[in-house]
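hiii so my PI (J.) wants the whole complex modelled not just the main chain, which honestly fair. so below is everything: four entries, each one labled with what it is. i double checked the lines twice but i was tired so who knows lol
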Amino acid sequence: MAFLGDLLTTVADRGRALIGFERTGSGRRRPLADLCEDLLSGRGEASGMALAQAVLDEWDRLDAEGRLGFFRLLLTHFGPDHERLAAALEAYREDGDAGPLHLASEPRRQELFRRLNLAPGGTRVLVRMRESLFTAMKEEPALAAVDADFRHLFASWFNRGFLVLRRIDWRTPANVLEKIIRYEAVHAIADWDDLRRRLEPGDRRCFAFFHPQLIDDPLIFVEVALTREIPGRIDDLLSDERAVLPATSATTAVFYSISNCQEGLRGISFGNFLIKQVAEDLKRELPGLDVFVTLSPVPGFARWLGRALDEPGAIGLSEEEAALLRLPQVEVAALDEAGRARRDKLLGHAMADYMLRARSPAGRIVDPVARFHLGNGARLERINVGGNLSPRGLREAHGVMVNYRYELADIEANHEAFASRDIVVASSAVKKLLRPPAG
Amino acid sequence: MAFLGDLLTTVADRGRALIGFERTGSGRRRPLADLCEDLLSGRGEASGMALAQAVLDEWDRLDAEGRLGFFRLLLTHFGPDHERLAAALEAYREDGDAGPLHLASEPRRQELFRRLNLAPGGTRVLVRMRESLFTAMKEEPALAAVDADFRHLFASWFNRGFLVLRRIDWRTPANVLEKIIRYEAVHAIADWDDLRRRLEPGDRRCFAFFHPQLIDDPLIFVEVALTREIPGRIDDLLSDERAVLPATSATTAVFYSISNCQEGLRGISFGNFLIKQVAEDLKRELPGLDVFVTLSPVPGFARWLGRALDEPGAIGLSEEEAALLRLPQVEVAALDEAGRARRDKLLGHAMADYMLRARSPAGRIVDPVARFHLGNGARLERINVGGNLSPRGLREAHGVMVNYRYELADIEANHEAFASRDIVVASSAVKKLLRPPAG
Amino acid sequence: MAFLGDLLTTVADRGRALIGFERTGSGRRRPLADLCEDLLSGRGEASGMALAQAVLDEWDRLDAEGRLGFFRLLLTHFGPDHERLAAALEAYREDGDAGPLHLASEPRRQELFRRLNLAPGGTRVLVRMRESLFTAMKEEPALAAVDADFRHLFASWFNRGFLVLRRIDWRTPANVLEKIIRYEAVHAIADWDDLRRRLEPGDRRCFAFFHPQLIDDPLIFVEVALTREIPGRIDDLLSDERAVLPATSATTAVFYSISNCQEGLRGISFGNFLIKQVAEDLKRELPGLDVFVTLSPVPGFARWLGRALDEPGAIGLSEEEAALLRLPQVEVAALDEAGRARRDKLLGHAMADYMLRARSPAGRIVDPVARFHLGNGARLERINVGGNLSPRGLREAHGVMVNYRYELADIEANHEAFASRDIVVASSAVKKLLRPPAG
Amino acid sequence: MAFLGDLLTTVADRGRALIGFERTGSGRRRPLADLCEDLLSGRGEASGMALAQAVLDEWDRLDAEGRLGFFRLLLTHFGPDHERLAAALEAYREDGDAGPLHLASEPRRQELFRRLNLAPGGTRVLVRMRESLFTAMKEEPALAAVDADFRHLFASWFNRGFLVLRRIDWRTPANVLEKIIRYEAVHAIADWDDLRRRLEPGDRRCFAFFHPQLIDDPLIFVEVALTREIPGRIDDLLSDERAVLPATSATTAVFYSISNCQEGLRGISFGNFLIKQVAEDLKRELPGLDVFVTLSPVPGFARWLGRALDEPGAIGLSEEEAALLRLPQVEVAALDEAGRARRDKLLGHAMADYMLRARSPAGRIVDPVARFHLGNGARLERINVGGNLSPRGLREAHGVMVNYRYELADIEANHEAFASRDIVVASSAVKKLLRPPAG
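here's the output for the full assembly
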């Protein structure tokens, strides 16, 4: 197996300069547009790596204005070859063969991107290039056509078949770990000691997908807690005073944080594969695990509730109930126990409503995290009022968290119900929280 | 660096069964066509890996007839979505936006291939699938349309940016080495002892490109001899009695054998990159190397010469000269020294003619190996009569071999001359061998 | 874990020249004896690696005569420091403190060996040095005193705690595999195809101990067959037509060949640890394994039997029975079935006698392989007449093989019985083969 | 090379439980003394690993009192076998053969330690055991006899030939890096950001020695700065605002911090080898490096100076000069520029005196760091008044630092001069600072 390992030490020579056979013939710098044309021409066949490197070096020197100009160039000069396309259309009308039409309608920038990838470290730069494109698209929405080509290519290159799952632990190189700290998007990691608390204890796991060409940069990672029951509060998981559970005693794997790392790969979906692969691997390692569940934020709840409370009777609340939910946080803190219990109960009902009934104008379920897990075939397992009392948790979801549960036998059916018929599969406990529809 | 290494041990878990979350919901086997449709549908989103595995498992069970049927299915049922294409054409006529047209004209089998790649080891099976397709295409040339999609995808997936160069030596795992024995296409390797003679001595090198998903299967490899002069005879390089040269004394790197390994990647070009990268790496390791040269077969020479001899005067030979060249090998062996010298001289002239003047009906230079090296920017350096007296060498090229030389400063210009103006760049020594054109 | 891996790539830089700070001050070559004294002196502290390298380089140039001279030097000039020893003896008589006595009685060559180990690759050369010493000892038995120091040091350096168990399979580097072919001492491996048959099938395993400083040189290895029953014939295991068993169906692990590889480590015992560690690891990988057993040669049987047959009545055989056992192999082949069956039965009885009753003049059990396994705590499980009909098997043991069985619960007791009370623990089946003691 | 790498992943299985063949026969816990005797007896041969594990497990449970008891046991019950020793003495008197005497005088605890090393992770526990012994020795100095055996064994096991040099950088696993933070003994590392500043910039290096059995625990490490001149102030090296130098422009390698990591290996010397090996490796990587130099603390200077100032005229100072040097730090800060310059000059003289003339009662040079580098063959290159103005630098050495220089051609001669003749080799600049000897 070890021979394989070595393979990547060569991949990783990405930074190394080209010293000899692969260097552009002349020292003078040519305009970026010309270099790109060269790369697509016959010269690109003779000196592809060197030309690609030259283009990427030039690109690296551009400021924001220069990059915008470059993207415009990609849009206008590196679209399909129109002459060839006209001929292909003509031919298609005659023989109905769509193959040449497909090839002729391919924007030339796709081949350009493929050739740029010849340069050492090219993949990495291309991913960063798309990040810049997002910025440029804000100014110039038409550049979305360029993005479509990036996206098409990246979906093919970052196919799950080419990804590698790796456990992240305290023996992982520091240059990878610092990225875990930086990219954690759900429950921020304060510092290295905090990081260690998430990685080192025997009842903690972290896994990431990597691509061989982005070798020390994770694409997405998930943090897992091993427990004996489905947790309702994030603090129970993250507290640094909790007792550590021997992994072999655990029955439940809790996915409590999933973070995408590469803005330049936005829209290329890894999370579904990651959760299922990690579940597989954990089950293999720890056959005692029976329950695979998340502890998830509900980032759209507070905003939705705010609007709902503005429409009298919208979710079947009395005005007094609505007022209780509208209370600012400082006043909530001042409630007596009964008042708080009452408010908590109302939050539960409202969350059930949000999850099971609320729909966007386009008819989709509102919450993005919910869409992700339900779309993966999970079911909504439990609503946890008071699950996350951090400022962000309160602001986004009045402190409520939910669990989604992944159960092998039901994944396809759940997915089908959700994807085709827009049905949110939920446990009976959740359903019981639903009050009769308003009105 | 080592963290990287480990990455691939996971990649290499390719054979491992899926045990849990990723298995098709039902046990009953469905027809391959239905499984493929499932994989492209919403089910594929929920259970992509498992469905992909199921398709590939079914495929593995097919006999030749079954595979032909499968390829026909790909051709007829997994082309572009015609309804969508019609709409895109309509839209294009209105707004001139080729983007939707390009997407709509993509055959559905391309996405199918991408999803099949989700299965563990999927890439490997897809490469083997294309091998089968070549067989099927002999019966049914229309399947070339399916091949175009494979080729398009593989050109993207096996982009040089994703390949890894690895030295092959006597410490390489046996399962890789046996493939070197099997795939060597130029000068056959008799057995493990013969292999060792090509790998172990200090003045020998071997390098291969690998793809992370075909981890113990090289894509292409090159064998190199380090010498102090440009060799003219293959036996001098391969003899097991030769003196071994300390690598640091070498001035010349001789690429004496280049073999493609994956029939399923036919037409995806790696050789150009391999030679240049190896030259770079060798120069880095051994700064004393100044000359990078091949010792190459000329596989098309004898056939061409045979035809030329059939046309009287075709290459400016007298009838007596032609007769000398037509002699069967047994009679050549019986020639006296002067006769043999005369014949050798004629062979040199004829080879120069073959290389510098002969053209195919399409106007291209005839010899495929020459096209490869000249297209890479090498120049024809020397003609070696008697370079390869093995049966194959005599049969293919009357025993003549040639050297192509790679010189950094000239590569682009050489390539340009050859690619655009069909000019074969050759040393003056070779040019002097040319006799005045046949009148 | 991967960081560790890299560690050894540095260890493996063993061949690399010292270029700078560590080189002996002067270029002139000094006599070996002087270099050794230098290495033990203060100079050794400043330039230990370089001096050690210089000594080992000189040593490498010596012929047999020169080596004998060197060993004599070690014996006579690098024994204990007699002055210091006299003082220590004096002190011991006064204060009874044995510590200084122990230090003062240590031959100076022990420290010399330790300092020679500073050189890159020193361990390897020291092991080879001991090999040479064995040759020299044949001429000069007094050199055994030098060997005692080697042995003491190697027993410490090659402590099992420093050894690494590695599976050997078809993905192992060729330079390691060629050593498996070379070192196999029990059932010769004919060539690479034969080797592959022992490594690649799913029901075969091979494991070796390595030392970090002898990185591609195994110390000892064991070949294992996974089966469903205890085998009696080696041909059943080695046949290339046998059906391969899925490893997970196996119930029995058969250790059918154990070979020591390093003559220079003779007398340093690894086999005991190897068998037990491999049994552990196999059990961990394949919990279905219940029986751990050998299929072993009995190399001393034929010689012993020959002598026994010379003493009339020695093992209770009638003269006719003795004659049957004395038959040369060609005549055995000519026996009718009943004759052969009768002879086989006698061989079984004789083997039981050999194993259970026969003792060397020193009172030990005769067979060296038996001593090894019984000393490890195995029990004699079964006698297999006709187990190995190869020329060697017939010559050494009239074709009989035996199984030793390792059973966790009994290992200590078996060992104790054997080591302290010289009792051979055997199955009842074996015991039943015993005939009443010769009268 | 990669096969090697894998080796250590097995070594690293140190924590793993023994599940099968190697477990002590009975569950009842036996007294530690009995277990130790068992391990040395025949049982140890059958079940060495398990018994060793049992001893180490028991040991881990002992409190300080228990450990003291254990060490006493080692001292009294596991010394040499007195009967055997008496016989060996007798024999020695007769035949003068010191071999048996050496063996018989070996304390039995040496073999006990070797057998304890059979347990997985045994080496690590033994090193920790010696740490505990140091504590116990404070109470009971006689235990030094036990320590002598540890030291003898460790000197053999941790022979430089078994150590591995590894670069430490920002890609090193976090569990190794946290040890660098913890063990840094010269210039404390504040946190992970500080660590990164010492490892990541292109002009910084860090190297450590590892032993294969203490795989993620460095033995000793050195931090190196690459510069263009010999630095005099530690702040110039550690400042986080300094400009980073391209490594290839550097001419000078500065060893500015060397830290031993394993208290349990005290007295086993690695530093000499480390510096020379690192110098070699750096020279190989960066041929432009010409100067190898330290920037070192002088930890004994202030104490020595304090005493010298107490003896009027001791180092040739006038009373007024002595008063200036006696000034407390707060008053020094209040000096005008001329006063400070005068004081600095006096410090330089005094340091030269300390280094070149001062001797301990035993006649050795006083400063331990100086003894280390001079003993390695370095020369005293420069005295840097004001080199380290941190509280510790001021307290220990009035802020003075020195450079020691390692020059290949002189190392042996320098070492010899220092070791045999007690001569401190110093640059002329340093020597010029010496004032005429006090009168």
